[in-house]
Amino acid sequence: MFERIPVEDKNIFAFKARGKLTEEDYRQFLPQLEELIRKYGRISLYIELEDFEGWEAGAAWQDFRFGLRHDRDFDKIAIVGDKGWEKPLIKFADLVTRTRIRFFHKDEQKKAWDWLEQEEPKPEQQPPQPYRKLMVATDFSSFSHRAGLRAKELAERYGARLLVVHALEDPVIYTGDYDPLVIDPAVEENLEAMARENLNIYVRELGLPEDTRREVVWGSPKWSLVSFAREKAVDAIVVGTHGHRGLDRLLGSVSSSIVHKAECDVIVVK
Known about the structure:
With 270 residues, this protein is α/β, with parallel strands linked by helices. Helix content is 42%, strand content 27%. The protein has a 5-stranded mixed beta sheet with strand order 1-2-3-4-5, with helices on both faces. Strands 10-7-6-11-12 form a 5-stranded parallel beta sheet, sandwiched between helices.
């Protein structure tokens, strides 16, 4: 369950989360957040976990959808807890959202408040620099082929290095009780080998140099591509866009997610 913690900090609101969170907990909690957003605009949250046991499957889905829908409505979220598994979970959440999310141990409550209250310095605006390292994200579709042609043209124009990257979803299967089944490592090895061969074909079809760097990353394309681009300090990501249908319409396209989350320029090719 969620419990409001009374505080008087401007645009910072505090809640305590106890036990295992249910769909009913979120049906009561999320309207409170929406009302705060309507009243105050962009807000920050302090969430204290007490005897926390995670989420029911439906509750986790509600949390995920709300986060996607209100990604721009939160400035910072400080999560305070004391269990070892909570910190990596929060670090993962920080990767897939524009909202700044940090985990603090129970004995760091003051540090959490100080972080929430801290004014972030605005970066100085630098004049645009020529691209030196470009990355094209491909799923081997016709849309990705067009993106590759544009990336090739930009790399030649600027004399930039080009990385060609494909994201592989982790092959996880869930039972009716939402328990993940472990996949044979040989399956992952075969998937990666096929992806690398498709990257070789993609590079040849685009007429890119043989020494063009090719990479396979694991995880949802919506965060793994952005994370890889950040790690390699690329200047721009070139990506194709698909039409929205089915689940894609609900969650937002990969290209849209990259546009919102990437720290570098993103060039979307239609």
